[in-house]
Design brief:
By secondary structure, the chain is mainly alpha-helical. 68% of the residues lie in helices and 0% in strands. It is built from 3 helices and no strands.
Length: 107
């Protein structure tokens, strides 16, 4: 019994995060977050972070933009699928309710 309690406490200590996720993000992490690709693109040419590797920076920004658009399109697709399944479930519940009412009216 004691072994099971120690094991469960150890499991919780290892797998549960130490900071509560309240949905506000991490407000103190503003200084360590990377610069957004749009902010990098809007910097003047002298302030670019890449220096002599302008082509590499451009490719990197293009890749980041492609990744962002891919993620957003996948997110939109998932949202649409969730909405469809929610509508299908509500229709199914409505049909079950109508069938139940019809069955009750028979008796």
């Amino acid at each position: 019994m004691i072994f099971r309690a120690i094991l469960s406490i150890a499991f919780v200590a290892v797998f549960i995060p130490h900071e509560p996720d309240l949905g506000f993000g991490r407000p103190n992490a503003g200084g360590i977050l990377p610069i957004m690709a749009s902010q990098l693109a809007s910097l003047p040419a002298g302030a670019k972070l890449c220096g002599n590797n302008q082509e590499a920076c451009t490719r990197g920004l293009d890749m980041a933009g492609d990744l962002r658009s891919t993620i957003l399109s996948n997110l939109d697709r998932v949202k649409a699928e969730l909405k469809e399944s929610k509508l299908a479930r509500s229709d199914q519940r409505r049909n079950i309710g109508n069938d139940l009412v019809a069955l009750i009216k028979k008796f």
